[in-house]
Amino acid sequence: MNETVEGILSHYSVREFTKEALTKSEIELLVKSAQAASTSSFVQAYSIIGVTDTKLRQELSAVAGNQDYVVQTGQFFVFVADLSRHHEIGKARGVETNSLSSMERLLVATVDATLAAQNMAIAAESMGFGICYIGGIRNDLAKVSELLHIPDYATPLFGLTIGHPKANSEPKPRLATDLVYHENHFQPKTMDDFKMYDDTIRDYYAARTGGKRVEGWTDQIERGLKRPTRKDLKDFLASKNLGTK
């Protein structure tokens, strides 16, 4: 165990921040930390948009389900899977760019952006900030793209809000390691394997909400399966020339 690992293992999402903005130097350090992440074949297929304008944050918050911590935070970042610069290079060099519309290229850009975001998150927490990922911007990617002026061959993926926490919390219990880690071959699990974890999560929610929420992890997954969301994503990505091949 070392300081870095201790920091990673103590992670929890923060949903209430002070109004104190991150400084320019803090933002620059966080972005440099993100850029230090691994990138497939050195393509660096992502962009990061820092949103400082309050009105714009409010519009993004509305898309994400009116989450206050998108607006009141130190800084709100949007991570973008970005192949638009590669498209521009192809045009300038007279090279065919059809391959940028492949599912493989979209996956590469998505992985690149996600690795960069997690680097930023770990750096932020090591600096004493709290963080929360905002997947809710995918509720209306067309609107987010319009608000942020995102071109073809690029799509927003998620937000990351970073700031000074108003209060401390504790990590949410994760699945037992033997339910996630497989050695040599995939080892299928049954509902019986999740019983102990369900009990742990029920106790966690009950304690955190004063008994207002009592459900296991499998209950939460079942609820999500009954309510499919964002079924327009495939068509939206195609409109951006992404993932069509």
From TrEMBL:
Lineage, top-rank taxon, reads: Bacteria
> What general EC class does the enzyme of this chain belong to?
oxidoreductase
Q: Does the keyword Acyltransferase apply?
A: no
Q: What EC number is given for this enzyme?
A: 1.5.1.38
What is the name of this protein? Oxygen-insensitive NADPH nitroreductase
Pfam families, per the entry:
Nitroreductase (PF00881)
Q: Which InterPro entries match?
A: Flavin_OxRdtase_Frp, Nitroreductase, Nitroreductase-like
Organism for this UniProt entry = Listeria grandensis
Which CDD domains does the record match to this protein?
NfsA-like
Q: Does the keyword Acetylation apply?
A: no
Entry similarity comment: Belongs to the flavin oxidoreductase frp family.
